[in-house]
């Protein structure tokens, strides 16, 4: 299966992805995580991407597309993958189709969430500085405050998860990523999920959908 998870920042794409990748034998490819690793490594791409990310803006298509297409061409992705945070613009979606011409995207799941939910989810989000695991200060706190349950490293608030930048990221979603949702809808490839519900309720539905596709 080759899946695309779509939705505004804070819609829960990453949380739901983490719950299904092992069971369905998929590689979780999150462009935000890949870019943050490049920034941490201070690679040429990371240095270029950093200013855009810190401002809550999208990294230019050419940079993200070449990073992503190289990643999905790796051997471990041959048995299936789940894209989380890509494509975010129409040119990215078109480039993805070109790259996957022999093995196209199987299905896209659109996590639809209201603006009121998003702001609370993102500003309360805390992320492990080491392994990237996600928590929420009230909805999903770690066992020990500020410490990752999984690897014991410090939790941080991502620079772009601060309230000032959330509005910018939402505006970008409305401007650009909604065109991607339309693109897949026009191809009848989208299943829309009400993502205003609890993590567990959404997870039950995602599992059902994926079992139907497997
Ligand atoms: P995320 O972790 O998916 O919220 O992504 C964090 C940041 O990485 C975004 O705000 C963008 O600056 C950048 N980014 C991630 N994926 C993409 C993409 N597909 N296109 C452009 N920028 C991206």
What is the element layout, followed by pairings?
Blueprint: E1 2-7, H1 13-20, E2 27-30, H2 31-41, H3 44-54, H4 61-72, E3 81-84, H5 90-99, E4 107-112, H6 115-123, E5 125-128, E6 134-136, E7 155-156, H7 163-186, E8 190-194, H8 199-213
Parallel strand pairs: 1-3, 1-4, 2-3, 4-8
Antiparallel strand pairs: 5-6, 5-7
The protein binds adenosine monophosphate.
Adenosine monophosphate binds at residues 9, 31-32, 35, 52-53, 56-59, 64, 85-86, 88, 92, 160, 169.
Describe the structure.
This protein is of the alpha/beta class and 214 residues long. The chain has a single domain, classed as 3-Layer(aba) Sandwich (Rossmann fold). Helix content is 47%, strand content 16%. The strands form two sheets. A five-stranded parallel β-sheet has the order 2-3-1-4-8, sandwiched between helices. Strand 5 (125-128) and strand 6 form a beta hairpin. It is globular and about 45 Å long. Bound molecules: adenosine monophosphate. Adenosine monophosphate binds at residues 9, 31-32, 35, 52-53, 56-59, 64, 85-86, 88, 92, 160, 169.
Features:
214 residues; alpha/beta; Rossmann fold; five-stranded parallel beta sheet; 8 helices; binds adenosine monophosphate
């Amino acid at each position: 299966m080759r899946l695309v998870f779509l939705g505004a920042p804070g819609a829960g794409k990453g949380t739901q992805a983490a719950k299904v990748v092992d069971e369905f034998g998929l590689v979780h490819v999150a462009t935000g995580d890949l870019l943050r690793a490049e920034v941490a490594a201070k690679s040429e791409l990371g240095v270029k991407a950093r200013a855009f990310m810190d401002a809550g803006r999208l990294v230019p298509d050419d940079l993200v597309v070449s990073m992503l297409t190289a990643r999905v061409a790796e051997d471990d992705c041959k048995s299936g993958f789940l894209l989380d945070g890509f494509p975010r613009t129409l040119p990215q979606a078109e480039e993805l189709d070109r790259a996957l011409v022999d093995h196209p995207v199987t299905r896209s799941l659109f996590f639809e969430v209201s603006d009121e939910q998003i702001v609370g989810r993102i500003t309360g989000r805390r992320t492990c500085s080491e392994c990237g695991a996600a928590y929420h200060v009230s909805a999903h706190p770690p066992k020990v405050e500020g410490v990752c349950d999984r690897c014991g490293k410090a939790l941080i608030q991502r620079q772009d998860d601060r309230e000032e930048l959330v509005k910018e990221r939402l505006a970008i979603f409305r401007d650009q990523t909604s065109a991607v949702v339309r693109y897949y809808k026009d191809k009848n490839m989208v299943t829309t999920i009400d993502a205003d519900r609890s993590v567990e309720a959404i997870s039950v539905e995602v599992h059902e959908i994926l079992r139907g596709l497997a």
